[in-house]
Amino acid sequence: MDEDKKECILKAAVRAFSRMGFRKTSIDEVAQAAGVGKGTIYLAVSSKDELFLSAVEREVRGFLARGRALLPSFDDATELLAALVQAELREALERPLVRGLLVGQTLATVPQAEREVDRLSALCRDNLLSALERLRDAAVLRDDLEPELGARLLQDLEIAALMRSERRQDPELALAAIDWRKTLGLVVRGLRRPVTLASPARLSA
Questions:
Q1: Which of 15, 23, 82, 162 could form a disulfide linkage to 181, CB 3.0–4.6 angstroms apart?
Q2: Closest alpha carbon to 51 in 109, 122, 105, 121
Q3: pLDDT for 123-142, tens place per residue?
């Protein structure tokens, strides 16, 4: 199958799954929206589950593309990570399939595809991972930093914010109310009390 036709099918699948969810979306509806026969869908994917996961991956790659532009924009660790997390949260609100992946809905929908869902979740961390690697290599962050561990921590903060916002009437407003600069400043600086030099009098005592 040529790439243009497959892309058309995936676009139609993204729209359908985003609007109606997995269970209410049929292969027939996706085929009709894509302007192809049902059999053509099965030339691109083997099942509805695979079509759904392919649609999720397409959205994840779009999600990453928007945030990637921020990576060279900041040298300050807190500013970069705060801007990136805010951008990713806004993007997740606009992409229901990405939001569903992050908050666990995708795995609940296709529990038999746990390995693939884990791969897509890891793919979602790509910009966070790149940001931490960039900051470590530039000697902004400590050289023993484990970027993958840090990226998982930041993604967990994003997930917690998304889950909390879903309980609000206006999720976008709820996310905007979080001061990510202060929140991530704690992560960057650590929670340890800063060490201060003792006064000269105490030093001589």
A1: 82
A2: 109
A3: 999 999 999 999 999 888 88
